[in-house]
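It would be a great kindness if you could assist me with a short task in structural biology. A protein sequence and the structure tokens that stand for its backbone fold form the material at issue. I should value your view on which stretches of the chain appear to form regular backbone elements. The record follows directly beneath this note.
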Amino acid sequence: MINKIELYLADEDTLYLERLSMYLLSKRNMFQLHTFSDCKKLECAIEEGKTRIDILAVSEQFQNKVAERIAAKVKVLLCDQLDTGVENGWLHINKFQKTDHLVAQLLQAYEKETGQLKMHIQGKGSCQIWGVYSPIGGSGKTAVSLLLSRAAIKTGFKVFYCNMEHICSFQRKGGQGSSLSNVLLALQTKGSNLELQININSVIDDQSGISMFAAPESTLEWNEVNAEDVRRLLAALSNTGMADIVILDFDSELNADKVTYLQCCDHILMPVQKGDAAEKKLQVFRRELELRAAEFSAMSERIRYVENKAQQVTDAGIPFDAVFASLEQCASSAPIPPILLQIAKEWARR
């Protein structure tokens, strides 16, 4: 069993402690968290000197009282003002900033001091990969991907949503300097800690609980990524333990790299629509599967077709209506179609 990072937080602001703790417990699986709003309780917890403290993060009131008696690998002062840098062995971090960025700074400091972060975030590497793809443009792939992500979360699994489109239709911003760009750069940099970059450049949708990468600085950065890079990315995502299920949201293009990505998927959901143009594109795609039966046979067996209907919800379709008008709504409060809940339950059991 891998030991978690022992993180001690101390601040007299109980509301701040509560909110930060909720975030850490919901997003990160690497911390053993200890919180204190009272100095005496913190002293009691460490008075024997046998307590292992990997990261100690305290407000100024606590620093003055217990600084000399605490042995921690990393000492962090949570500052009320923008005050960065290191002073007398204490790393100064602004406490009032985006939590993703604050956590990223804690992890980077721990990695720099110990070089052990990769050991702590290494997971069992057994998460499933689900792809959402359709040769039909405008078939609702991204909306379906987000709703499928929520369905999997409702089923009881941790989900990481990864938008593979070069021009993304849905993005989340990260903390300062935090984005998918850093992950893509790490993929191409020898010796880089890819798992670390994944952790510090991901964000979580507060309402849905879906984890995802912060938006890249430029969509053209995807052009520097090849099929082998994507395999490494998927392996690293699996190893971090951040998710039980990774959902890949693809664009409608079909090329050699896309086929490779689809073959990495344990399951593939394909939204389809009625209409001459849509049906012709689907026919061309299915003909391609038949022509390359030997190459695509395994992938063909993993595809589940779901009609994206324009009318009411049925067991065989998804309503394409106001639910899909806002992708933000899909990630937060839109109702999950029953067919997606059914699919999520079936796939998660395998």
In short: The two ends are 25 Å apart (CA to CA). The CA atoms of residues 10 and 58 lie 5 Å apart. Confidence is low (pLDDT under 50) at residues 118-125.
